[in-house]
Amino acid sequence: MSEPTFSLRTSGRLRRRQLVSRAMGALAVGAALLAVAVLAIVVVSVASRGAGALNLDFFTKNQAQGFNPKGGGILFAIVGTGVLVGIATLIALPLGVLTAIYISELAPPKLARVARIALDITNGIPTIVIGIFVFAMIVEAHGQSALAGSIALAVIMVPLIARATEEVLLLVPSAQREASLALGVSRWRTTFGVVVPSAIGGILTGTTLAIARAAGETAPLLFLTSLGLSSQADANPLHPLQSMTLVIFEYSDQADPAYQAKAWAAAFTLMCFVLVTSLSAKLALARYRKKLGG
Amino acid sequence: MADSHAEKKNALARTRGRLDRLGDPALKAVTFGAAALAVGVIVLIAYELVTGSSLAFRTFGLHFLVSQDWSVFLKKFGALSLIFGTAVTAVLSILIATPLAIAIALFLTELAPKPVRALLGALVEMLAAIPSVVLGLWGILILGPFVQNTLEPFLGSTLGFLPFFQGRHSTSGILTAVLILTIMVVPIVASVSRELFATVPAELREGALALGATRWEMVRGVLLPAARPGILAAVALGFGRAVGEAIAVTQVIGSQTGIRWSLFSHSDTLASRIAGQYQGASTNLQISSLVYLAAILLVISLVVNIGAQLLIKPIDRRPRRRRIALDRALETQGLSAD
């Protein structure tokens, strides 16, 4: 037996190719680490500054009157965000679901395509433009109100809910629809008795994602519901109400560290709410998709 | 015979309640109405912006687009310096974010061990969910001082011979805005790219590797070409997001009119100018000029979105299962493959 005359060790060109490959791999690892580091820095710095200013008063009291920014809390803004997002959901949920039913169950394919594209384009419109739109349509004539803010948030939420709903409606097996129709059940009973119930999980998680998105919006509310700077709790949707995001925006600009502390605490609260809701909704959606076998 | 036939027909019809006879047309009408409303919003938005900006349009015409003036006192308004600020911040953030995002997506689909994949994927999506006002707050109070005290002195001392890295260091300015926008855009492009890479069939990957390609050669020769149209669409979408971001940018950019080439200088974008001035606008002409800016933004976002739709159209001919996966990936970012 003679020794092989070639070496199995890499050399020359192949070696260089492998080095390039490894270097690119290292860059990819570096990029991923960088993204995680940025997320960690943002979350940790918001949490460490925000948690210090958090106490029971922060959630249960209103801003102290007069020029004393210390003490008190942002109950008014929490209530405001609740009212704004609540009404927006009441408007957007039925509109979005009905739109999705039309697109996926009833519309001729061409119309459905046009509607889908229109929804995606609406979703891409900068939210500040939507704010200006609602200002021109409602606020110029009727003055600021939480209702105007809710309408702007609903414009943002409808395409999100409609597209999420449409996706889960498509996952409902057509055998279910056909079985129902073959039994002589009318279309609308089939839709609301068979199709929507088996898609309800996906519809609700899609709506939750839209709520998380709306709760974090500032730009569309800026001209619609922020005037008056009332810092007392008020839940009347016909009055201009503050929101958590508007409070963060206003307080972040103040030189007084007491305001900045409040801004951090509000940012921490809002971030926790948004991250927890959107993450759990995404998990639920993933599980739901698996169940429907999509 | 005819009688009994009619009788049968009546009997059949009677088994359906009035609700059922009215229900189907009603369902069609109601859902059509909802869809028409959801779709018609675009037309309504365009209409309101056109009427709202008509005063500024009559006063300045298209000259508005090439004028740098912005003065309430002189009653002169123009968008050029804001278009410049928007273009610089959006283009730079996209240039930084795209390679980073693709690298992250490649790590997530090709290199990371399975348990790390899910966790890291969720973390990247979390970055996308942080509200922009929170990111802006972090931008002024944490990132800003870092930029002023560390990043800008470093760039000034190493690259200071270039006009882009000269001038006074400050917490706010184009550089801070670009960094914040980059943080916003990376997760959008990364999560779409990740889904795109995952939909490339394993046979193609394995084929390339079996032919002796290194991992990077497989990525460059197979994955990137297969995913290119989708990635371009995601980049377009990220660009649209960067152009339209108002709150975080207005918090960190320094709000100043004028065209300056240094990244250290203050500036303003279309969206941040609207956010900054709409509330305090004092004259009708100023309000109308701000609505004019919004109309420009709307046109940009329409062009970018429709462009993205056209980019992903060729993918439509692919097998259904891959299309659904891709559809889902893009849809979470507000795009469809239709």
Question: What can you tell me about this protein's structure?
Answer:
The complex is a heterodimer of chains A (about 290) and B (about 350). Chain A is mainly α. Chain A folds into 2 domains: about 10-55; about 60-290, MetI-like (MetI-like fold), CATH 1.10.3720. Helix content of chain A is about 75%, strand content about 0%. Chain B is mostly helical and about 350 residues long. Chain B folds into 2 domains: about 1-50; about 60-330, MetI-like (MetI-like fold). Helix content of chain B is about 75%, strand content about 0%. Chain B has a two-stranded antiparallel sheet. Chain B is flat, with a radius of gyration of 26 Å. Chains A and B meet through helix 1, helix 3, helix 4, helix 5 and helix 6 of A and helix 2, helix 4, helix 5, helix 6 and helix 7 of B.
Write a brief structural summary:
The complex is a heterodimer of chains A (294) and B (338). Chain A is mainly α.
Number of separate strands of chain B: 2
**Mean pLDDT over the residues of chain B:** 84
| Total number of domains of chain B | 2
What is the subunit organization of this protein?
heterodimer
Short descriptors:
heterodimer; A: 294 residues; mainly alpha; MetI-like fold; 2 domains; 75% helix; B: 338 residues; two-stranded antiparallel ribbon; 13 helices; 2 strands; flat; disordered C terminus
Which helices and strands appear, and what pairs or packs with what?
The complex is a heterodimer of chains A (294) and B (338).
Chain A: H1 12-53, H2 56-60, H3 75-106, H4 109-124, H5 127-142, H6 146-171, H7 174-182, H8 187-215, H9 244-252, H10 257-292
Chain B: H1 2-15, H2 18-52, H3 54-60, E1 70-71, E2 76-77, H4 80-111, H5 114-129, H6 132-159, H7 174-199, H8 202-210, H9 215-244, H10 247-252, H11 270-277, H12 284-312, H13 320-331
Antiparallel strand pairs in B: 1-2
